Amino acid sequence: MGSTNVNRRDVIKQAAAAGLIAVPAVGALTSCASGSGEDNKVEKGKKTKDNPLGVNKGAALEVYIFDGGFGTKYAKDAQAVYEKNFPKAKTKLKSTQKIQSVLQPRFNGGTPPDLIDNSGAEQMDMGVLVGKKQLTDLTPLLDAPSIDDPSKKVRDTLRPGVVEMGQFDGKPVWILYYAYTVYGVWYSQKALDKLDVEYPENWDDMLSVCAKAKKKGMAGWTYAGKFPYYLPFSLYPFMAKIGGREVLDKIDNLEPGAWKQPAVKAALEAYYELYKKGYVLDGTPGLDHIESQTAWNEGKALFIPNGSWVENEAKKTTPKDFEMRVAAPSSLDSGDKMPFGTMWASGGEPFIVPAKAKNPTGGMEQLRIMLGEQSSKNFTKQVSSLTSLDGGTDGLTLPPGLDSALKALDKAGTNIVNPRIQDWYVALQKEKIGVACLGEMMAGRMTPAEAMKKAQKFTDEAREDDSITHYKH
């Protein structure tokens, strides 16, 4: 990182001195009542060594799974274990890509399922659900003995940060994030080798690699243009790397001026440079996540911001010799506050047990089964992703992308960031900042300065909105 990098920062500072497809109305959940249905919960069973949560062995269980990048087979396999343990229970597993459209009416009516994988573009707003007291506290699950080692509580078998992610204000844990997602810049090692380049560890090198790719008729970047809230998967840790963790904390806390921080300006200017220099694949703003991943698999672009579910989601179009890899965002320059390797990794696939569920204990027991080594390894083998169970990969032959993700985690060490805006304020993050600001900027319809101004406006509106439950670090 030579003086050119320092000059780049100086230029950005001088510049600073001078101057989704819409997600279906997530906000509609704010009007949800706690449900008009009467309390029709099943009676709890007797707590025993083999049934520590006291599941009613004959009670029905209904589970709803988001049918996305991870599919549903892993959940069906875990359901089979539940049925084996409770043969008298009638279980039902359903799936959809439209979680909110399908399940919001059931929340309104007080008849939600017992366990929900609340994920995808139509994810219900976590902050709203928590604020409206529509979820069950999962502390009993976390304090129950684990499936594999009864001497350990479930909470003691989870990866760092998973329990805290499910907390919004105080000790209750409202969400159990089942997958453990590594976010970053994904690429093909074969494609880099073909260009005779290494993954760029600073921004000048990133631009040089993109320029070299362009000469060969290949774009530097693509992304889910229709769902541009994928951009933060690499952009947010880039901001933190430049200015420190507090940059993201201020954004999460909805602070005045959060989007006017120098590190935010620097990061947006850098990404905008990709667009200005023609390093983004033509037509990207019109591509959805599958189309952008397919274009990347086909060698039309080198880099794509994504999460570790991509290896499974894109496997149908990924060449066998692709050598999928993930890396942390490049450094901006030698003045960055955090080292190269800093990345975003956190729980994914948020599972919730509704407060009005008929069989909430059964829902928690299904999660306890899923957090056992058998189900965890099954998930990893099937979908090329880690679970929140700490470990659970011993003896497994990992696919290249997941193996790369584990190595990236090891390199990051303690330099892991976890922006909470994604689960505290879903509508703000996806519809407003993602689509209306970052998406517009990367499509060339808005400058970084305009994007920052608009993002701050949305942030200020959210902070002043008394109908929104607010959270802070």
Automatic annotation (TrEMBL):
Gene3D superfamilies: Periplasmic binding protein-like II. It is found in: Cell envelope. It holds the Pfam family SBP_bac_8. Its main location: other. It comes from the Bacteria. Keywords: Signal, Transport. Residues 454-473 are annotated as: Disordered. The keyword Signal applies. GO terms for cellular component: cell envelope. InterPro entries: Bact_solute-bd_prot1 (IPR050490), Chitin_NgcE (IPR022386), SBP (IPR006059), TAT_signal (IPR006311). Belongs to the bacterial solute-binding protein 1 family. This is ABC transporter substrate-binding protein. The lineage of its organism: Bacteria, Bacillati, Actinomycetota, Actinomycetes, Kitasatosporales.
